[in-house]
Design a protein that fits this description.
Shape: globular
Strand content: 15-25%
Organism: Cirrhinus molitorella (mud carp)
Cofactor: FAD; FMN
Number of strands: 26
Pfam family, one: Flavodoxin_1
Enzyme class: oxidoreductase
Number of helices: 21
Largest sheet: 7 strands, mixed
EC number: 1.16.1.8
Length: about 725
């Protein structure tokens, strides 16, 4: 595909191949099986849709490249059989939790981990694997690594190097070139398979036929070629004379000094470049709006594990002048028979903001139809492989309900979505900019102005007013509105029938790409409980309200498999939790306090808590409770630091600023607990900075204590993880 300059702006045309390119195609396909034989399988394991989306993109591109691909989720084991698969297989696998494969891949992993399988079980399998992960978390890409490693152990062979894509820096940085290189790897694989099957001559004849047909078709369409790659520059079109005039270097230099790149506009060299853009993603949904009674307008019910519970208490834990506002909520679960342990989390359902839903409806000219019942069907004859109606979109619910509770309208649009939006944009310069943002050449701009800026669909529609996508496009590209997870900050021994959790109200300041806004769930919760919110030290008004008057939320428990106190009470524990990361440790300490009260003669290991915040008198969360734990012996060592407070005495200029600094000051104790006493280390909080810094400090402590280099220290830390004695509950 190529952008073509025309009087009305920029439009999209198919560009015939040049003779040189046709020769390249001819040589590339020499010895490759014909289209019917170039058949491979794509299997994906996805937790939140990323891996599925990438797998579908590979499937779509395969058809354009002359291949035939079947696609299936790893959970659908009745749709494929890797044990006897002779076609090449491409795996796309994400990572979830503490380095685990996604839920949809768990059954497959258990199957291939069967110890009775012989070492040559997959000796006939040729595969490639793309692993997705986030370097902000431990065990990067471990979901894919688990599958990759086991397949290798059972005799499977790579036909293409494994890719490791990092969501922390942008999946597309690795995904795009990995997919680009996949096609040559597949050609070589099919060529090798053809040679081994002695089918080379017939297959070459097949390709020659396809090649000559392609060359004939391209020659027929040659008259459509109006602008070639070397002519696609920042240009003006003289429509009367039919000439393309390319801006000279001095013009471009002047332009680059006066313009600044933004979401809405680019600067040279991107604005002058030919663009390599993704193909238009295949449409596959038909959305009908009917004036009919709505059905299915209910939030997830018991079958999804959710329960509606009252918020019985809401307390602001920080002072009004603190940098961030932290709020504690108490949920009444006494009538719901919900059991949990300290260290578990709870999923909370939150809606999209009503104001944003209304703006979206208005922008799409659908405000008068918001109460219509929605019927979603598959398009007949869609070219999308394995297309299906998304399960998270209920049939016959109102449009307003679906946009409020089912689709994540705040999600950052992926490049495929941006590419699709471009085709529904009327203004030529706006369309060009959207194509730049989804192009290979515009990756830096996409990262800066879309991904890193947390731009959402509404932001794009505001920036590009001539873009008017159909509703079906939103249903195809907007992901499911996911619940938000919060760690329990209580113990049911201390608070029977209740569960507490703590959150900071996330704020996104205004920037050129979007207006000021709060986090989707934290902002909604803050508004939702505003009527019962009380500052610290006051009696919550909710204690005087009836249950019916209290705000309610839908929650479900999210048990942790590992992030719990040791079963052996004598095992020492070290807890690192700055800010709201202290939440699960409040539950730990409440539990330990009750266990000590019930077992006066028991032996209890030491408990260390490393806590940090900005200001001692503004955001020292749970200060009174932590000091009580320290006073009664529940907490053996409370080590705190305040990063923004001024030194309060001479000689404290080198005082610890962050939790990792205090860990270093107590390095000998930490090393002894972990290496000699077989204790446990728990870390909770920010993944991007704190968790990395704590991990680096731990490597330093162990390296110094054991007098070993960094590589051996890393192996020791990996051993702690394997033994479930170094555990993290972190987020980015």
């Amino acid at each position: 595909m190529l952008l073509k300059a025309c009087q009305c702006g920029i439009q999209y045309v198919t560009r015939p191949k040049t003779g040189l390119e046709l020769s390249f195609i001819k040589s590339s396909f020499h010895n490759m099986p014909c289209v019917a034989a170039a058949h491979f399988l794509i299997l994906y394991g996805s937790q939140r849709g990323q891996a599925q989306s990438i797998a579908e993109e590979i499937c779509q591109q395969a058809a354009e490249r002359g291949f035939t691909a079947d696609i299936s989720c790893l959970s659908n084991q009745d749709k494929y059989n890797v044990d006897s698969e002779i076609r090449p297989v491409v795996f796309v696998v994400s990572t979830t939790g503490d380095g685990d494969p996604p839920d949809t891949a768990q059954k497959f992993v258990r199957k291939i981990k069967n110890k009775s399988l012989p070492q040559d079980h997959f000796s006939s399998l040729h595969y490639a694997l793309l692993a997705l992960g986030d370097t902000n978390y431990a065990n990067f890409c471990n979901g894919g690594k688990i599958i990759d490693s086991r397949l290798q152990q059972l005799g499977a062979k790579h036909f293409y190097a494994t890719g490791y894509a990092d969501d922390g820096t942008g999946l597309e940085v690795v995904v795009d070139p990995w997919i680009e290189g996949l096609w040559d790897a597949l050609k070589k694989t099919f060529s090798s398979m053809a040679t081994s099957n002695q089918q080379g001559t017939d297959l070459r004849d097949c390709i020659q036929d396809n090649y000559h047909k392609t060359a004939s078709d391209q020659e027929k369409n040659k008259s459509d070629l109006e602008v070639d790659l070397h002519l696609l520059k920042l240009s003006e079109v003289d429509s009367q004379k039919g000439k393309t005039i390319t801006s000279d270097s001095s013009d471009a230099e002047t332009l680059s000094t006066t313009l600044v790149a933004s979401l809405k506009q680019s600067v040279p060299p991107l604005s002058e470049s030919a663009l390599n853009v993704p193909a238009f993603p295949a449409s596959y949904l038909e959305v009908l709006l009917e004036q009919a009674p709505k059905e299915g307008e209910t939030l997830p019910s018991d079958k999804d594990g959710y329960r509606e519970v009252s918020i019985s208490k809401a307390v602001q834990l920080t002072q009004d002048d603190a940098v961030k506002s932290a709020i504690l909520l108490e949920l009444d679960i006494s009538e719901q028979n919900i059991a949990y342990q300290p260290g578990d989390a709870f999923d909370i359902l939150c809606p999209n903001r009503a104001s944003e839903v209304e703006e979206l409806l208005l922008r799409l000219d659908l405000q008068t139809q918001k109460n219509c019942a929605v019927q979603v069907n598959l398009l007949k004859n869609s070219s999308k492989k394995a297309a299906k109606v998304p399960l998270h979109i209920p049939q016959n619910a109102s449009l307003q309900f679906i946009l409020t509770w089912c689709l994540e309208i705040r999600s950052t649009p992926k490049k495929a979505f941006v590419r699709a939006l471009a085709d529904f944009t009327q203004n030529g310069s706006e369309k060009r900019r959207l194509l730049e943002l989804c192009s290979k050449e515009g990756s830096a701009d996409y990262n800066s102005f879309v991904r890193d800026a947390n731009v959402c669909l509404l932001d794009l529609l505001r920036a590009f007013p001539s873009c008017l996508p159909p509703l079906s496009l939103l249903f195809e590209h907007l992901p499911k509105l996911q619940p938000r997870a919060y760690s329990a900050a209580s113990s049911s021994l201390q608070h029977p029938g209740k569960v507490h959790f703590v959150f900071n109200v996330v704020e996104f300041p205004a920037c050129p790409e979007h207006p000021a806004r709060t986090g989707l769930c934290t902002g909604w919760l803050a508004d939702h409980i505003s009527s019962i919110l009380r500052p610290p030290g006051t009696v919550p008004a909710s204690e005087h309200l009836g249950t019916s008057a209290l705000p309610k939320v839908h929650v479900r428990p999210r048990p942790s498999s590992t992030f719990h106190l040791p079963a052996d009470l004598s095992v020492p524990v070290v807890m690192v939790g700055p800010g709201t990361g202290v939440a699960p440790f409040i539950g730990f300490l409440q539990q330990r306090e009750k266990e000590r009260e019930a077992n006066h003669e028991g032996t209890f290991g030491d408990t260390w808590l490393f806590f940090g915040c900005r200001h001692k008198n503004k955001d020292f969360l749970f200060r009174e409770e932590l000091e009580r734990f320290a006073h009664n012996g529940t907490l053996s060592h409370l080590i705190v630091c305040f990063s923004r407070d001024e030194p309060d005495a001479v000689g404290t200029i080198n005082r610890p600023t962050y939790v990792q600094h205090n860990l270093r000051l107590h390095a000998e104790n930490i090393a002894s607990i972990l290496l000699k006493d077989k204790g446990c280390l728990y870390v909770c909080g920010d993944a991007k900075n704190m968790a990395k810094d704590v991990n680096d400090t731990l490597l330093e402590i162990i390296g110094n204590e054991l007098q070993i280099d960094k590589l051996d220290a890393m192996k020791t830390v990996a051993g702690l993880r394997e033994e479930k004695r170094y555990l993290q509950d972190i987020w980015s």
